[in-house]
Amino acid sequence: MKAPRGSLQHKLVALMVLTCTAVLVMAGAGLIAYDHVSFKETMARALGTRAAIVAANTTGSLAFENPDDARQVLAALGKDPSMTAAALYDAQGRLFATYPANLPASAAPRAAERRSIHFDKESLVAFEPVVEGGRRLGTLYLRSDLQALVVRERVYALAVLFAIVGSVGVAFALSTTLQRGITRPVLALAETARHVTEKNDFSVRAAAATSRDEIGLLTEAFNDMLGEIQERDLEIRALNRDLEVRVEARTAELEATNRELESFSYSVSHDLRAPVRHIAGFAELLEKRSSAGLDDAGRRYLDNITDSAKRMGELIDDLLMFSRMGRAELCATHVPVETLVADILREMEQDLKGREIEWKIGALPEVQADPAMLRLVLTNLVSNALKYSRPRSPAKIEIGAEPGDGETILWVRDNGVGFDMQYAPKLFGVFQRLHAADEFEGTGIGLANVRRIVYRHGGKTWAEGEVDRGATFYFSLPERKEAA
Amino acid sequence: MSVLAGLRQLTWMAALAALCLPAPAGAVATAGSAHEYDLKAAFLFNFAQFVEWPEDAFPSPSTPITIGIVGDDPFGTSLDEIVANETVHDRKLVVRRYKTVDEVDACHILFIGHAESKRLDRIPPRLGNHSILTVGETPDFTAHDGMIGFQMAKNRLRLRINAPAARAARLVISSKLLRQAEIVGSEKTR
After folding, report:
1. What CATH number is associated with residue B169?
2. Fewest Cβ atoms nearer than 10 Å: which of A55, A346, A433, B101?
3. How far apart (Å, rounded) are the C-alpha atoms in residues A415 and A392?
4. B112 sits in which H/E element
5. Mutate which: B179, B182, B183, vs A, most A CBs within 10 A
6. Does ipTM exceed 0.85?
């Protein structure tokens, strides 16, 4: 497997090689520094010894004023190429002999009083008193270059460099081999994890680790985790399957029941119509035929029968419509609400005779809805507003719209009798009425129908109101067609 | 400018030059300059450091090293000045003057001047049975059993050492001193 850049393998190798290099560089630097210091000490000691020996050999020359002999002694220094200069001074500090013999006087410094050895910029300098039997006869001056030090340092640096290069090579080879013990199980683990993620296959397992180290533990834990996940996965799948089956069964059951109920209510309503018509018809016939023969009580009874039959008929018609609303196909198109409202108001003109009403109709948008159903909704809400504002003169009715969150909210507001907010949840229920039938006529199906239609369009209905302060009925329609 | 005038001026200049020149150095100009004898005095003193005498040459630890001068003293005060307050091998140094070699007794270094050397046919090897380092300045001093001879060459004072003579007097001359000198032996016939 070719390792990508920045992989664990590369990091491990780099870690070891870098560590090794850093340690060696430090050690090498320390070694060179130590050698530099100790070699300088050695050089100084050697020059000091040499100065002492040469000085001892020149006592005679100084005592008996024999510069030739002194020059001979100094000339022997030439055996060592690092010796660059030497000078012998007499007791008065006058130059007595030099090496090389033609050393210019300017190259010989003033004789020092005391024995001294020091390094200057590019040489090592020693002064040695020449003493015989405790008497100072003169001073010796030696100067040696630092070539030996330079050469030694160069050799040392080279040796250290070779050691570093060699060690780094060995470290690279060793770490490349040794890191496999760490990376192989990790890579196997990563491979397994990828397989699991890509194939969603929880049945695979990472190769069992051979070692009992952290990676071994990790592999084990990973495998345990996979086992756990696999188990859970199977459980979830089983649960899902079970759930789906149950939902399907329940849905089918519900659908069947609903269908039954719908057809039941439809047929009941339908079947009720005929007898109710008969009752109404025969009550009418009876009235025509024998109205004169009835006393006042009888006529009142007959009127009651006629009224009740008529109301029953209306109730049945509403129920049938409600039932149809649940089944009718939605046929959504763009509907200009403004036109629709104008239409509805024109239709209602008859009912508005003799009433003083302040209309306030805002800007109304286009919505996506079934036009017939939307007309039903708006007719319902407007006629409700008219109905419950009957005690007011003038009655104020507002129709408006506002954009909502991905939907359009339409509302109808009146200044009528209103309602107690605690009954708000009941408003949209079938046969739920807050007012007595003799106060405000109605079957109690209108708002239920509104809710049903709005729900089928994917919207919501709600209402706000206060007793004697009017009410506002809202419904929302999603901006995109989302018919149920 | 007349000749006379020129001559007068020349005389004037000569007088001035004579004034500026130092006076001739000492009356012993025949035997060498004063500087030469300063050097020789210093050498005499230095010999004390580079020569070892047998133990019996010093009866007691405080016995000084004696430098003797036979005959006329050419050193003036220079030798006395050199040895004053000096010690060699923890011994003080004294200078003694003798008229003739015969007067010499317990002495360590003996300088025998020109006059006395000429008088002596040969330098006695063991003067008064003492180990005495004999130093002379005649060219044939070492050939006549003298131990160290001074030679002036190219304005330099060189040494000639008769090593066997010194050895015979049980004197040990340091190699450091020998290195500075020409080593010779005694002339057997003469």
Report:
1. 3.40.50.2300
2. A346
3. 7
4. strand B109-112
5. B179
6. no
